[in-house]
């Protein structure tokens, strides 16, 4: 999903102003996934995707262009390391802010242009992961809008004076059909992308990677860390689940694998403790972009991918 780590992308409403959060911390998390294999996998491996694949803010940016904010601690890098794929056997072309269109067209960032991601594929490619779709449905914009309304909800007594506990969802109800249409359209685009991936790399094992759980099942557990009204926690969680369902269905229809990162992350969402969470809240306490996976989260996603790859070996 879309991010701009340099200035921070999370919004907080304070006195009517949407503020940005600047990420400045780093930690020393071990990059080992905890999943070990006795044999290496055949490469090359190509990773396609957006910021949840790129892993912005976890380490200093690596690769080109710098504006893609790829981390050496993201799940593609961890998967490649665990499978013993080095040098030309591994290419990570994921880019923060990418949509499905950026897999077939160049993506312009504030620090350079990322070529069409599918260009990295060839007939020699043997493993492909695809993590895309959040930016197509405007999920980051949805979060920002709900955060702004949630901050106002909290400033006006958190339901003490008004009974409405889902102001963002209520406003979105009129446009719910539009969100559902965006999800369906994203699914159609993914189907075309997967067809092209298989055409370019007919011998590759292909996996669509889902989005991990951002928010808890119990909206009361989210507190102020995400600045959301309780009902809007439910609303956003449901939209993410709908997107993941669409990704799973399109992967199945295309005859490719699907990696569920949502289920193993449900107890590690952005509203859990600092030393437990996979997703950072609006103000990160671990190195990561706001509302994005931290190093722990990328390791968890890598383990999910590796389990899928192992089952196919």
UniProtKB/TrEMBL annotation:
Identify this protein by name: SGNH/GDSL hydrolase family protein
| Record Gene3D superfamilies | SGNH hydrolase
UniProt-listed Enzyme Commission number(s): 3.1.-.-
The record's section on PROSITE patterns has: PROKAR_LIPOPROTEIN (PS51257)
* Any Pfam family the entry gives: Lipase_GDSL_2
State any single GO MF term.
Answer: hydrolase activity
Which species does the entry assign this protein to?
Streptomyces hokutonensis
Q: What InterPro entries does UniProt report for this protein, alphabetically?
A: SEST-like, SGNH_hydro, SGNH_hydro_sf
Q: Does the keyword Ribosomal protein apply?
A: no
- From which domain of life does this come? Bacteria
* CDD domains hit by this protein: SEST_like
Alphabetically ordered keywords of this record: Hydrolase
Annotated SGNH hydrolase-type esterase domain ranges read 47-299
């Amino acid at each position: 999903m879309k991010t701009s780590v340099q200035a921070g992308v999370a919004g907080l409403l304070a006195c009517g102003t949407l503020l940005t959060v600047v990420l400045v911390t780093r930690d020393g998390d071990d990059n080992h996934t905890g999943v070990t294999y006795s044999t290496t996998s055949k490469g090359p491996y190509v990773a396609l995707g957006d910021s949840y694949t790129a892993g912005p803010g976890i380490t200093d940016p690596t690769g080109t262009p710098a504006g893609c904010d790829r981390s050496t601690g993201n799940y593609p890098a961890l998967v490649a390391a665990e499978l013993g794929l080095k040098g030309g056997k591994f290419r990570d072309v994921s880019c923060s802010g990418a949509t499905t269109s950026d897999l077939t067209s160049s993506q312009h960032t504030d620090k350079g242009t990322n070529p069409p991601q599918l260009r990295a594929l060839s007939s020699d490619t043997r493993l492909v992961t695809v993590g895309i779709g959040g930016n197509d449905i405007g999920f980051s914009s949805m979060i920002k809008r709900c955060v702004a309304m949630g901050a106002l909800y909290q400033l006006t007594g958190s339901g003490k004076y008004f009974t409405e506990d889902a102001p963002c969802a209520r406003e979105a109800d009129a446009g719910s059909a539009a969100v559902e249409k965006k999800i369906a359209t994203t699914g159609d685009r993914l189907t075309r992308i997967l067809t092209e991936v298989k055409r370019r790399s007919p011998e590759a094992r292909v996996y669509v990677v889902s989005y991990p759980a951002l928010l808890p099942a119990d909206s009361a557990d989210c507190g102020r860390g995400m600045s959301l009204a309780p009902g809007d926690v439910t609303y956003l969680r449901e939209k993410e689940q709908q997107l993941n369902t669409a990704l799973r269905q399109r992967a199945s229809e295309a005859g490719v694998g699907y990696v569920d990162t949502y289920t193993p992350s449900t107890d590690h969402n952005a509203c859990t403790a600092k030393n437990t969470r996979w997703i950072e809240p609006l103000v990160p306490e671990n190195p990561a972009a706001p509302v994005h996976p931290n190093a722990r989260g990328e390791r968890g996603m890598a383990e999910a991918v590796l389990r899928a790859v192992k089952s196919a070996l």
